[in-house]
Amino acid sequence: MITVRPATTADADLLLSWANDPVTRAAGFHAALIEPEVHRRWLHERLASSTGRLYIGQDDDRPIGQVRLDAFSDGRVEVGISVAPGERGRGLGRDLLRAGMAAGIADPQLRVLVYVARIRPDNEASIALFSGAGFLHVGSEDVHGQRALIYELPAP
Predict the structure, then answer these.
(1) Which of 12, 49, 90, 123 makes the best surface tag, with the fewest CB within 10 Å?
(2) Which CATH superfamily is domain 2-116 in?
(3) What is the pLDDT of residues 108-123, one digit of tens each?
């Protein structure tokens, strides 16, 4: 069973290795490798945020990926997900996504009304994942100079 737990500073090296994986970099909106110090500052800020959450997905006690949530004042919560390189292709993404979104719903500070995903048009795996989870394509917008498809799912 896939569960999530809040990330901690002890997860810094694991998260950085996942973030700098070539497939992960290619699927995101920033292609450059992330420097360790930049990552540590980002993680520290992320963990201190009142409107953002970072979860480590686990299959039993084995870390399998991460889910990031960023809440906005209008009840929209952006969700991002990545499956660990060694865990891809095992069908874990949907359960990891569901576990992360359930944790967001359970968090009263986030006040989730709608989940939003911004996906590169060439990221077929993410499009399939979010579509399969019930997200609907609602448009597109520019994200860091690149086109992003916008998918949304109302919170239960």
Answers:
(1) 90
(2) Gcn5-related N-acetyltransferase (GNAT) (3.40.630.30)
(3) 999 999 999 999 999 9
